[in-house]
């Protein structure tokens, strides 16, 4: 699966280019500096494990590749009570799920994210919704166009060689549903892990 190959490549890059602990302070400081008005670009690959709630259907595994654009707004507050919002628009050019037969698709997401000023290891909280078009019905017997509400956490660690570039780790709770557009709407609840790179303009 291309998604798994990209994940493996991102992991190898992280082993080579992530900052050593002694050097990490200045890089993390740059990462969490105010970014008002700036744009960020990301390339991510992920794997999800999901289960359809009704009994007859088994768990499903899917992979996806995401290209993301983010825009940062002015920081809010000061100190540990402050933080910064940014919006993200994601394009999913590749999606694959292990139904029988195997199903492929593409889609898009819109997310709102907030990064609190808690220190160098502060995560970003994200939530949003998307749409996914697939080559066959997902789950079987439903429809080929589904909605994908999702929420989760992400962390970014700058590369030691290039301060504008970061390694991104993300976890999302991912729900796939047709919103009642077919006779049945079992949905799929998944835990999605993403790994990728981000860079600022």
Commentary on this structure:
There is one protein chain. By secondary structure, the chain is mainly β. It has a single domain, classed as Porin, CATH 2.40.160.20. Helix content is 12%, strand content 52%. The protein has 2 helices and 9 strands, in the order ααβββββββββ. Strands 1-2-3-4-5-7-8-9 form an 8-stranded antiparallel barrel. Mean pLDDT is 82; it is low at 19-32.
Brief write-up:
The chain is mainly beta. Helix content is 12%, strand content 52%.
Q: In terms of topology, how is this protein built?
A:
Blueprint: H1 2-17, H2 24-31, E1 39-51, E2 59-72, E3 83-97, E4 103-116, E5 124-134, E6 145-147, E7 150-158, E8 165-176, E9 188-200
Antiparallel strand pairs: 1-2, 1-9, 2-3, 3-4, 4-5, 5-6, 5-7, 7-8, 8-9
Give descriptors for this structure.
12% helix; elongated; Porin; 201 residues; eight-stranded antiparallel β-barrel
Beta-strand proportion: over 45%
Q: What characterizes the major β-sheet?
A: 8 strands, antiparallel, barrel
Instruction: Give the C-level CATH assignment.
Output: Mainly Beta
The name of the CATH architecture is Beta Barrel
N-to-C SSE string, H for helix and E for strand: HHEEEEEEEEE
Mean pLDDT: 82
Number of domains: 1
Structural class determined from secondary elements: mainly beta
């Amino acid at each position: 699966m291309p998604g798994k190959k990209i994940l493996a490549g991102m992991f190898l890059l992280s082993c080579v280019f992530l900052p050593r602990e002694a050097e990490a302070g200045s890089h993390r400081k740059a990462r969490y500096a105010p970014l008002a008005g700036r744009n960020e670009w990301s390339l991510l690959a992920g794997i999800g494990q999901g289960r359809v709630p009704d009994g007859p259907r088994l768990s499903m595994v899917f992979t996806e590749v995401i290209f993301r654009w983010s825009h940062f707004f002015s920081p809010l507050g000061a100190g540990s009570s402050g933080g910064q919002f940014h919006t993200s628009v994601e394009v999913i050019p590749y999606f694959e799920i292990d139904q029988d037969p195997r199903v492929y698709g593409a889609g898009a997401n819109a997310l709102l994210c907030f990064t609190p000023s808690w220190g160098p290891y502060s995560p970003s909280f994200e939530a949003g919704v998307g749409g996914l078009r697939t080559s066959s019905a997902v789950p079987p017997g439903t429809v080929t166009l589904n909605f994908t509400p999702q929420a989760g956490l992400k962390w970014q660690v700058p590369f030691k060689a290039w301060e504008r570039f970061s390694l991104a780790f993300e976890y999302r709770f991912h729900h796939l549903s047709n919103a009642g557009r077919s006779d049945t709407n079992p949905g799929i609840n998944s835990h999605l892990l993403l790994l990728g790179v981000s860079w600022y303009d």
